[in-house]
Design goal:
By secondary structure, chain A is α+β, with helices and mostly antiparallel strands. Chain A is 45% helix and 15% strand. Chain A contains 42 helices and 33 strands. Classes of the chains: A alpha+beta, B alpha+beta.
């Protein structure tokens, strides 16, 4: 067995046997290496925390630098401070981070405990029954029994379900956020399928893959003692952390437990991205290193020279060290002394500040969505400031710009368009107002006055059309009082039904039976319609559906169940919105669909009385107008996939009893598949006409911005079906290449189909999308829309959300071959080259790229052309783009243009794009959680983006940039004081400050204010930022933190340190001041300068600022005062006793401090005043507006917008209309959008 | 390289498993703090808003500066250099022949005259130039616990004192380079009466050190009144001529609590410094402390400065509430005040030229 197993699943297989079954004796050998179900996501345990955490922390360069300094201080010849003192910063940083790690780990531990101690009902060999056990005690090979709504503790193979059809439903919301139910099947051909499974009797040996993280794949087989093998696939596997729904009891055997479950292996956790600002910061940290080395070298050389000029002096400690060597030693000493220059604490501070910023983003009530009860989720913790620097926005369309709440808008059936005029804005996805004309036509069917001779072929089309809408889907039906229960066992009342009409309908279908050629030679039932009806339409009391044998005619009786057709004139009475709901109040149906389109279509069908009432594995219960509820035997579902772009159901038609395939799919695909007129000469005019009309209507729909779907039908001959069935069964049962075979089988079926009609579904724009896009464009963000939709739909939506304006010139690239694309780029580039010589002229060209063109454009040699062209466009829309193309476009723009990109999307198809972009934003909406899971920020509406970028982005960026600059300033300013002193102490590395004060200066006295500054500073109010999107540009251009601002800050720091050192120097030179008395006023004024500098730099000061600033100053003064009174011998080399106490009692001290502080701050104050007065930045002007009273504010706001508009007009020069046409290449340059007529013939061939 | 951040969140997250179906209202609190609407003062620095500050600074600083300048000018200060570098200098001979172990003191006398009388208490300083008392290794070379009277440290001086910790096994008290290089010139001041007689001016050596140093930081070991016994077993610093317990005859000013020693031990901040040597107390209100006239300074020249090109001075100075004579602070205040005033005027002009434009309706672009 094993060797065989190896062949089938080479190298990666696991064997699972029942823990308490007949294989008990070998159980231990087999499952020795398998994980238990206990999970541990913590990184540390109590014992290993300290060593592990230290080990991890020392992986960080910054900490290594600290450690290096500590080590250096242990070398006697270079020792600068007491050994303990240099360790303080390191210890503080390590402790802060360790506490943070420990808290996080503890949170994880608590969570693990909670999960591990969940209760599950596990079979116990000792008690011979199921007993409650903790999750953590579950082992591979255990039998677990679960009831409805229980969470699955481990990956289990489904062996038994209380459902008679051997299925069970699970909800995977915990795994992927999708709330629709998924069906799982019991392993087929188990001996004890019917009775409840007894674990003792399970003798199977399960061979399956080793644990992996592929959620959608599971392969293996069960080998019974009789050597019979049963294939296992994904549908047999219950995944950990999913919930059992709709099924009373299920029993499974655990195959993967704990960390080996697919859910756990898919856990990737939050991501780490490095922000642009941080990259900039790292460059400046390197400059600080250079500065440090220069300063240390200067001191070292100075010391060497100074020493060599001295022969003998009483203050020299003579040893045999040469001046050069002494200089070398001193270099290292100075590195310790000036260590503060490298702003190590900056990294910790930046992290703290970002946490604070995220706190505020998450607590913004504007991001709260009442409907979902959700806030914004910040999943990436360290790129808040990137939000303020976005230059390119890539947006998905469906679900991002639009609601992704599909509302049936209009349809065309058999070439006739039903505009659904009443179906206005007020309609929603659940309630569709039916079209009058269509209702009339349908009413014929249910009307008692219905006469067969009035019937037309069109009517059959209509009925089939709605039938297809109702059943060609995977919608699960439930009713509110029975949540999530399959409504399949409705026991209908026996009511006197008007079977007369049913018969007549039957006849109608016989007459115009589809396909038409089959009607010429009706298959088996050649008898009169009446006898046919007698034979198959029997009134009976339907209790439940039994699974009938495949293809057996005996089952037909069960299939045709006329039910409760009491309310025939229902549609006439209520053609309003509620009428469609069918049965009154009590059993309003709830449709749970995989995609919103499906639900919209089902609701639409329901509006016309064609109601999907229930679903079981083998049957669909459908109510048809005038016919009551019919059970439709479901033979197959060929689910939707993105390559086929369609789905089909194979059913036995309840009326004609033929095998019918209903197909629903993208128009391009269905139109191609629809049978060509040649195959049916008799009706070529008819089908051809329908095709032509439908295509026309489809184009109209697309132009209107509707999503289009085509509905088609195919009737299968019995023999045809049998042949196909064989292939299908083979495909379904094969283990290898299952997917490929199934696909092939589906393709075989979906040919020569008859087009019934098409639907137009509107996907309404989310609220405030146009405003948001307009604001973002004003903010200088280039908005690109990458959509999988058609060109016309995309343009329409783009217009609706004001991405395009009616006056815009549209450049459409829609080329069939690479040569065309090259040509296109060549031609279009020439006017732009002209432009580049006249930088004031701007083409407001929104570009438009078609999917296939995109493919060529993304090729290596054309990339640059594409980019160059797109740079001149105000907006670019890429249609028909695949997920891969989306991410390629984002990557191309990000890498080649070196810009900050943001990608926003809501579906799985946007995941790659979201991951590639610098900032990925996910919209938690209708399409599951995949986009959210891979995003950095998850919002619930597109409009939130406006505040997120314009306000929070702006704030976060300016706050962080200013804080970082301030940090550099602070360190350079303080460290330079020590450096200047070297010139007066023989470059000996001495400091004029007590080393405790020196270390604490950075760590305690001046650390809190910048943090507060980084979290709370507010240059412009949120309202103004929202109203004036132009202000965002300052962040885009990195205005707050340019290299020039960095060096300017450095210069200012240099100046301030010079003042701060030399004023006390001149005031005390030649006096009897001792070392610390000299340092005391320098330190005090440095502190005052640093704090007041922050006040000057701050844009807003609240009471919190006041508390922290005053607190810092008081802390410093009280600390030094207490230190100078208490410390007698505590700080050996320095001599602080009495110094500060004495200093602070002298006027001289205050005189020096006041003068120093004022003189140091004058230039910055002056610079700000002059700069703000002579050439104020936009940000400042906006800030000034904030200070006016509301009336003035409004006036100014208006005036601002006027001036902005004027400047825009000035720079806009309209281009002459020049329509260049190239054969085979559909593009126009430029073209008035309003003239955008019917698209020229499809280029794709 | 420094790029590694603390935020490397490589740890795995959980699949959120909401076990209980509790519905929590996640709506953020609408508080001024959480919505970032705390009332705030928004300083916008423009010429208009800043110029009052400049005028105010100017108006405050100039008077202060004048006051400081006048105060500094009222301080009487006299300084005399007695290094003896020139051959004409009275102390030239002494400065040339030097050895730390010289037992016979070399004395020299300098004559000088004061043009103005010194009215209040006069502080007599010795000043040294080019003497780097702030050299890192020099500053460290002391043992504070030994000086604080710790017996243990007396016998086992800290290694910071190396190489001045031990003299042939015997611990040095006080140890270290600072103590070893203690200034040891003695200075005497004589008033030459117009009739030719020399009157020695009484120099008080009391209270020349900080009270905290004298009474808290420095203590003789073992509370033993007999200092000779207390310092038993220790050796004098190499350069000293006498052991530490023979610095003075006054018991209250001997040993570690000798004020000259304490003053020396408080290391100077800059290479040019002065240290308080003696105080000349004012006798009564009638006569000035130091009347106008001729004086003689007698120096017992022991301290070598030639090797490092240092200078030695004696400074006689009165003091004010701002300390000793230093015109710098007053001048600096006046300058800064004037500059501020001037800048205020400049800002006023700029404010009139540009500020009105900003406040007016037109927003320049």
């Amino acid at each position: 067995i094993q060797s065989d197993g190896r062949n089938r699943l080479p190298g990666k297989r696991r064997t699972v046997v029942a823990r308490h079954g007949s294989h008990q004796h070998e159980y231990h050998n087999i499952s020795k290496g398998y994980h238990g179900n206990r999970i541990r996501t913590t990184k540390y345990s109590l014992l290993t925390f300290i060593p592990m955490n230290l080990f991890q922390q020392f992986h960080r360069t910054a900490n290594l630098y600290f450690l290096f300094l500590v080590m250096l201080n242990w070398v006697p010849v270079v020792e600068a401070f007491q050994k303990e003192i240099t360790m303080i910063p390191l210890v503080v940083v390590l402790i802060v981070i360790a506490i943070k790690d420990a808290l996080e780990d503890y949170r994880r531990y608590r969570f693990d405990q909670k999960i591990n101690n969940n209760i599950a009902s596990v079979y116990s060999g000792k008690h011979q029954t199921y007993v409650d056990q903790h999750w953590q005690e579950v082992r591979v090979g255990d039998f677990v029994r679960l009831s409805c709504n229980e969470i699955i503790p481990a990956d289990m193979l489904l062996l038994y379900s209380s459902d008679p059809h051997g299925v069970c439903y699970i909800e995977t919301a915990n795994l992927d956020g999708e709330t629709n139910l998924k069906q799982r099947e019991v392993v087929r051909d188990l001996p004890q399928q019917c009775s409840e499974l007894t674990p003792e009797n399970f003798h199977g040996r399960i061979e399956c893959e080793n644990p992996n993280n592929d959620l959608s794949r599971f392969r293996g087989y069960v080998e019974h003692p009789s050597k019979v093998r049963v294939g296992l696939h994904n549908n047999n596997l219950l995944l950990r952390s999913c919930t059992v729904r709709n099924t009373e009891t299920v029993i499974g055997i655990v195959v993967y437990a704990g960390h080996e479950t697919k859910a756990m292996m898919n856990n990737s956790g939050p991501r780490y991205k490095r922000s642009k600002l941080e990259r900039r910061l790292n460059v400046d940290v390197l400059w600080s290193v250079v500065l440090l080395v220069i300063m240390c070298l200067t001191t070292a050389i100075g010391h060497g020279l100074w020493l060599s000029n001295l022969k003998e002096a009483p203050f020299l400690i003579t040893d045999s060290v040469s001046p050069a060597l002494a200089g070398f030693y001193l270099f290292w000493t100075m590195i310790i002394v000036l260590q503060v220059l490298i702003p190590i604490s900056l990294y910790v501070s930046v992290e703290v500040v970002k946490l604070g910023q995220i706190f505020f983003i998450q607590n913004d009530k504007d991001f709260y969505n009442e409907n979902l009860d959700s806030r914004i989720q910040c999943r990436a913790l360290n790129i808040t400031e990137d939000l303020g620097q976005i230059q390119y926005l890539f947006s998905d369309k469906t679900g991002t710009l639009t609601e992704n709440k599909m509302v049936f808008r209009r349809c065309t059936i058999a070439g006739v368009e039903y505009p659904h005029e009443e179906n206005g804005e007020k309609s929603n996805e659940k309630h569709v107002a039916p079209d009058r004309l269509l209702v009339q036509k349908l009413n014929c069917l249910s009307s008692p006055l219905f006469l067969l001779r009035d019937a037309s072929m069109e009517l059959t089309y209509i009925v089939d059309f709605f039938m297809a809408l109702a059943i060609c889907n995977t919608v699960v039906v439930s009713s509110p009082n029975q949540p999530r229960h399959v409504v399949c066992n409705i026991v209908p009342e026996v009511s006197p039904t008007k079977l007369k009409s049913l018969d007549e309908i039957k006849m109608l279908f016989q007459r115009f039976g589809l396909p038409r050629f089959s009607a010429l030679s009706p298959p088996h039932n050649t008898g009169s319609p009446r006898s046919f009806t007698r034979k198959y339409f029997t009134r009976r009391k339907a209790t439940s559906f039994r699974s009938g044998e495949l293809g057996s005619w005996k089952g037909i009786e069960d299939n045709m169940v006329p039910l409760n057709v009491g309310d025939m004139s229902r549609l006439e009475i209520s053609n309003g919105e509620q009428g469609s709901a069918g049965e009154p109040g009590a059993d309003e149906l709830i449709y749970e669909a995989e995609s919103p389109d499906e639900a919209a279509l089902v609701h639409a069908a329901r509006a016309y009385g064609c109601t999907l009432r229930g679903r079981s594995v083998e049957h669909l219960l459908v109510e048809l107008p005038g016919m009551g509820s019919l059970a439709v035997r479901l033979l197959h579902i060929l689910p939707f996939d993105s390559t086929r772009k369609r789905m089909s159901v194979v059913v036995r038609h309840p009326l004609t009893n033929q095998v019918v395939v209903y197909t629903k799919g993208a128009d391009s695909v269905i139109m191609d598949l629809a049978e060509s007129p040649k195959s049916a000469e008799r009706s070529d005019s008819m089908q051809g006409h329908i095709r032509k009309q439908t295509q026309k209507h489809l184009d109209d729909y697309a132009r209107e911005g509707l999503r289009t779907l085509c509905i088609a039908k195919k009737v299968l001959e019995e023999e045809e079906y049998e042949v196909w069935l064989k292939h299908q069964v083979f495909a379904e049962t094969s283990i290898e290449n299952r997917e490929e075979l199934l696909m092939e089988s589906a393709l075989r079926l979906e040919t020569n189909i008859t087009l019934l009609g098409a639907t137009g579904i509107v996907d309404r724009l989310q609220e405030e999308v146009p405003e948001t896009i307009e604001a973002l464009q004003k903010a200088g963000v280039k908005v690109w829309v990458l959509t999988g939709d058609k060109q016309e739909t995309a343009i329409n939506i783009a217009c609706a959300c004001r991405l395009l304006r009616s006056t815009d010139h549209l450049l459409t690239a829609n080329c069939g071959s690479k040569v065309d694309v090259i040509l296109l780029f060549y031609i279009t580039s020439s006017p732009f080259k002209f432009r580049s010589r006249h930088p004031y002229i701007c083409f407001p060209n929104p570009g438009l790229v078609y999917g296939c063109t995109l493919d060529f454009a993304l090729q290596d040699d054309l990339k640059d052309n594409f980019l160059e062209l797109s740079q001149h466009c105000r907006a670019v829309i890429c249609c028909r783009s695949t997920p891969l193309q989306k991410s390629q476009v984002v990557r191309l723009v990000r890498d080649k243009l070196r810009v900050m990109t943001l990608a926003i999307g809501d579906g799985a198809n946007d995941v790659s794009m979201i991951q590639v972009a610098d900032v990925g934003v996910g919209i938690s909406g209708q399409e599951g959680m995949q986009a959210v899971m891979s995003s950095d920020f998850a919002i619930s509406r597109f409009k939130h983006l406006r505040k997120l970028l314009l306000v929070h982005g702006h704030w976060c960026y300016s706050r962080l940039a200013n804080m970082i600059l301030y940090f550099f300033y602070k360190n350079v300013m303080y460290v330079n004081l020590l450096f200047w002193y070297q010139f007066f102490c023989g470059f000996s590395g001495n400091v004029m400050t007590n080393s405790w004060v020196l270390i604490f200066f950075n760590l305690l006295f001046t650390s809190a204010p910048p943090l507060l500054y980084g979290i709370l500073d507010k240059d412009v109010s949120a309202d103004t930022l929202m109203k004036l999107p132009e202000l965002y540009k300052s962040g885009q251009n990195s205005k707050a933190y340019l290299p020039s601002t960095f060096w300017l800050t450095m210069l200012d720091a240099l100046y301030q340190s010079l003042v701060c050192f030399f004023i006390p120097y001149f005031a005390l030179n030649g006096s009897d001041a001792d070392l610390l008395s000299f340092g005391s006023p320098i330190n005090a004024s440095a502190l005052l300068i640093i704090l007041l500098h922050q006040v000057i730099e701050s844009h807003s000061l609240t009471w919190l600022h006041a508390v922290v600033l005053v607190g810092s100053a008081l802390f410093y003064f009280s600390f030094t005062l207490v230190f100078s009174m208490v410390c007698v011998t505590c700080s050996p080399p320095s001599n602080p006793l009495g110094v500060d106490k004495l200093q602070m009692s002298e006027m001289h001290f205050y005189g020096v401090c006041a003068l120093t502080t004022v003189l140091a701050l004058i230039p910055r104050l002056l610079f700000h005043a002059l700069h703000n007065t002579i050439s104020p930045s936009n940000t400042l002007k906006a800030a000034m507006m904030d200070q006016f009273n509301p009336e003035d504010y409004c006036k100014r706001m208006q005036r601002w917008n006027q001036t902005q508009a004027q400047t825009n007009v000035k720079s806009l020069i309209t281009v002459e209309h020049s329509d260049i046409m190239i054969p085979n290449c559909d593009f126009r340059l430029p073209e008035e959008l309003k003239e955008f007529g019917t698209p020229s013939s499809p280029v794709l061939s | 390289m420094m790029a590694s951040s603390y935020n490397a969140k490589e740890e795995d997250g959980h699949v959120a498993v909401p076990v209980g179906g509790t519905i929590k209202n996640k709506k953020p609190d609408n508080t001024a703090f959480k919505q970032q609407r705390l009332p705030a003062w928004q300083p916008i620095l423009t010429a208009g808003t800043v110029l009052p500050a400049f005028f105010v600074i100017g108006l405050i600083f100039i008077p202060i500066g004048i006051g400081l300048y006048v105060t500094s000018n009222n301080i009487r200060e006299f300084e005399i250099d007695y290094t003896g570098t020139d051959i004409d200098d009275p102390c030239f001979n002494c400065s040339q022949s030097f050895s730390w172990n010289n037992t016979r003191p070399c004395t020299c006398a300098l004559d000088f005259s004061l043009d103005h009388p010194f009215e209040s208490n006069v502080f007599m300083y010795y000043g040294l130039s080019n003497f780097y008392q702030n050299h890192r290794r020099y500053v460290k070379s002391r043992d504070d616990s030994q000086l604080n009277g710790d017996i243990n440290s007396l016998k086992n001086p800290s290694k910071e004192c190396e190489p001045y910790a031990r003299n042939e096994k015997a611990p040095i008290a006080p140890c270290g380079a600072i103590a070893n290089s203690m200034f040891n010139d003695t200075l005497d001041l004589y008033y030459v009466h117009p009739n030719g007689t020399r009157i020695q001016i009484p120099l008080s050596k009391k209270d020349i050190a900080w009270w905290t140093d004298k009474h808290v930081k420095f203590r003789n070991p073992g509370n033993n009144p007999n200092l000779t016994a207390a310092f038993q077993g220790t050796s004098k610093p190499i350069n000293w001529r006498r052991p530490v317990y023979e610095l003075d005859t006054d018991e209250e000013n001997n040993g570690f609590i000798n004020e000259d020693f304490i003053v020396w031990m408080r290391t100077a901040a800059l290479p040019t410094f002065r240290k308080l040597y003696r105080i000349i107390q004012k006798k009564n209100n009638m006569t000035p402390t130091l009347p106008r006239g001729n004086y003689t300074l007698e120096v017992s020249y022991n301290y070598p400065v030639r090797s490092f090109e240092g200078r030695k001075r004696v400074i006689l100075s009165t003091i004010s509430w701002m300390g000793g004579k230093n015109p710098f602070l007053g001048i600096a205040y006046i300058t800064v005040g004037s500059v501020c005033f001037f800048l205020g005027v400049v800002l006023l002009i700029i404010h009139h030229k540009y500020g009105s434009r900003n406040n007016s309706a037109d927003i320049p672009n």
